[in-house]
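Same chain as my last thread, 173 residues:
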Amino acid sequence: MLEAPEAFIAHHSPHRLRIRIPSRRGDAAFFASVQKVCARSGERPEANPETASLLFVGETAAIDAVAEFGRAQALFDLRTHASPHRPLMHAAVKPVAGLDRSLRLATGGRIDLPSGIFLMLMGFGIYEILRGRFSTPPWYTAFWYAFGLVSMYVIEKGVRTAPDRENAMTRSS
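reply #2:
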């Protein structure tokens, strides 16, 4: 028997509960089957496979009841104790992604953060060469390598478009 996927609370208010099942993101068949099973018991959660979420509204939005129902039907294992921890890199990338958005807005989309840093470093490099300095790489080279790693992480993990879990947990709509 397959183990039920982990689910986490995205937000909760008195008559609304949104849970996310990250391992099933984009799995329309899974969410359709969850809706079908829920409909048999009189519940009608809204499913969104693209965000990997189920929204329970009304009296069916009780956390304990949803958690028990999901476990009993082997649909999902709702973790009620804590939300998943994000890697440390998310905290480092978030301000960088915000700076990138700001730079794109300020330049009408012509320059993003990697382009701006590239232009700046090229300018510094040309300046150093004109001054006759051919020594070891300066401090900004180390920063550039660090930024390159963060940039790759942003691209690979899609942090720019990832939902802000901290705000989602406190919002009640």
